[in-house]
Amino acid sequence: MTTPIIVWIAMLELFVVIEAATAQLVTIWFAVGTLASLIAALVHAPIAIQIVLFVVVSVVALFATRPLVRKITNTKEARLNADRCIGQTAVITETINNIDGTGMAKIDGKVWTARSADGSVIPEGTQVTVDKIEGVKLIVSLSA
């Protein structure tokens, strides 16, 4: 085997190992470009052609798969069923006092630990609006 063939095989192995070790598409385009250059080396193409082929095929593979990569690596935050409570009305079932660490609210048939958004004390029986959810606590404010 000639040196360029050995180099392309080594690079291909390296890119495939890196791709296998990562959770996202990182080097797949370079692996495709390396494979094209390896084939060119096997048919005795000049080194310059092999390098140009590596660059061109890698770039074309990158842009051809870009929509797929965006879809796979979509980083949108996963919404939880509990998120539907945000903006809804809840009823305080235990007086909320952030300083004492007390307070419960019922929404959608479930009772949650609750805290007031502005730190105010909210008495039992009051209707409130759920502003956000932090862990397993509703953060609420008085309904308008």
How would you portray this structure in words?
The chain has 144 residues and is α+β, with helices and mostly antiparallel strands. It has two domains: 3-72, no CATH class; 81-142, Nucleic acid-binding proteins (OB fold (Dihydrolipoamide Acetyltransferase, E2P), Beta Barrel), CATH 2.40.50. The chain is 42% helix and 25% strand. It has three helices and five strands. The protein has a five-stranded mixed β-barrel with strand order 1-2-3-5-4. The radius of gyration is 29 Å and the shape is rod-shaped. The protein starts with a helix and ends with a strand.
Précis, in short:
With 144 residues, the chain is of the alpha+beta class. It has three helices and five strands, in the order H-H-H-E-E-E-E-E.
What layout of secondary structure does this protein have?
Blueprint: H1 3-21, H2 28-42, H3 47-72, E1 89-97, E2 102-107, E3 110-116, E4 127-134, E5 137-142
Parallel strand pairs: 3-5
Antiparallel strand pairs: 1-2, 1-4, 2-3, 4-5
Helix pairs in contact: 1-2, 2-3
Strand tally? 5
SSE pattern: HHHEEEEE
Task: Categorize the overall geometry.
Answer: rod-shaped
The figure for the number of domains is 2
Number of helices: 3
Strand order of the largest sheet: 1-2-3-5-4
Portion in helices? 40-55%
Portion of residues in beta strands equals 25-35%
**How confident overall, as mean pLDDT?**
88
Calculate the terminal CA-CA distance, rounded to whole Å. Answer: 79 Å
Low-confidence stretches: none
The structure class reads alpha+beta
Radius of gyration: 29 Å
Q: How would you sum up the major sheet?
A: 5 strands, mixed, barrel
